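Database export, one record per block. Field names are fixed; values are copied verbatim from the stored entry.
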Amino acid sequence: MSLAVITGSTGLVGSEAASHFGGLGMGVLGIDNDMRKVFFGSEASTAWNQSRLEKALGGRYRHHSVDIRDREGVDGVFARHQGAIELVIHTAAQPSHDWAAKEPTTDFDINAVGTLNVLEATRVHAPGAVFIFTSTNKVYGDLPNSLPLKELETRWEIDPEHTYANGIREDMSIDRCMHSLFGASKVAADVLVQEYGRYFGMRTACFRGGTLTGPLHSATELHGFLGYVMRCAITGAPYTVFGYKGKQVRDAIHSLDLIKAFHEFFREPRVAEVYNIGGGRFSNASVLEAIRLSEEIAGEKIAWTYRDESRVGDHIWWIGDNGRFESHYPEWRLEYDVRRILEEIHELNADRWSRDRPLTAQR
């Protein structure tokens, strides 16, 4: 049986990838030690997703509770299955730029050094495998904030005559800007993935995502924008908007649409590729728009407050251009826009999250 190694296998993207490729008949070696619980508390634990995968995939899913900082542990997983690994999807990460500022060395060890460990294990034990890395649009730092933006009623928007009017392309520089410590650690990982492709001829790709989302997200305040907005609508928990009048814009891609992009690359891999990937012009919303849409879908008001202080390295406007990926893989299409994403998040999580709603807030 051909195998896929998926790090962060019980997180949003990792679990979607495990379900997809396991459903195609591949064996899945999941590497995940539930660090999300360490980062964001017990409510962010992904243990429930591990149980779901084990039940759904049975013997096709084998879980390894290994920390990607553990070089020998990661190498051991690959060494035991040498010759059968055809695909590596690296999603494990410390994902929050707020959290990174609390423990910069931990953030860098996970995001940069952990990525190096997975790359090296792949090079040594599965050099022919396709290597897919979930990078981030934060590699561009806050340079997108220098674009000519105009304030509208509910969002910021770019000058329609600008070259990035249809979305930011991969030709934007990653230099001369503030990245946040999280952005810096992801830049290091992103460049490592490219170099292993160029230097060793490995078939690697960096997918620089915007807002990666879907109903499988263990959403928390510091990570999981759309999921957390909807969670606040369902539970009655307060929500804080940070800076830019709540008009900052995010494009959002459902994890299913992202995994379909991964599948296209797996079928016809290339060397050292870099792709901006996200909802683009098809699926995007400002924070204010997402709040109002969540309230409409959930039938509940969100108790949100505003803080004028913006987050370090945060984007005022991010809509990515998927054009490069689409030119290489013209059969790929986005299926989920923001409304459909939020409707699915609500449908699949309302019962579970409503149990967290305080009695005083229930109707």
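Remark 1: Residues 117 and 294 are 40 Å apart (CA to CA).
Remark 2: The chain is about 40% helix and 20% strand.
End of record.
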